[in-house]
């Protein structure tokens, strides 16, 4: 995803190394993006029904599908995400600065 800014470009420029507070805010923003993306994937795959290797009518398919959605979401976020974490991070910083 070439249009996504890396972590170093969204950390406040005044710090040469990210502070512990900035790291915590960034982690929270990434966690939010992961949960958001995971929920989006779960809703996207919920309509697939019992077809394919994740179906078969048993509860195992639902459990596996949930774990698969969670891992996809973690992988996407770790690879730079879809841009939600950067926006959440900026808003968290803005709220902490009282603007």
Automatic annotation (TrEMBL):
InterPro entries: Flagellar_prot_FlgJ_N. Residues 49-90 form the Flagellar protein FlgJ N-terminal domain. This is Rod-binding protein. It comes from Alsobacter ponti. The lineage of its organism: Bacteria, Pseudomonadati, Pseudomonadota, Alphaproteobacteria, Hyphomicrobiales.
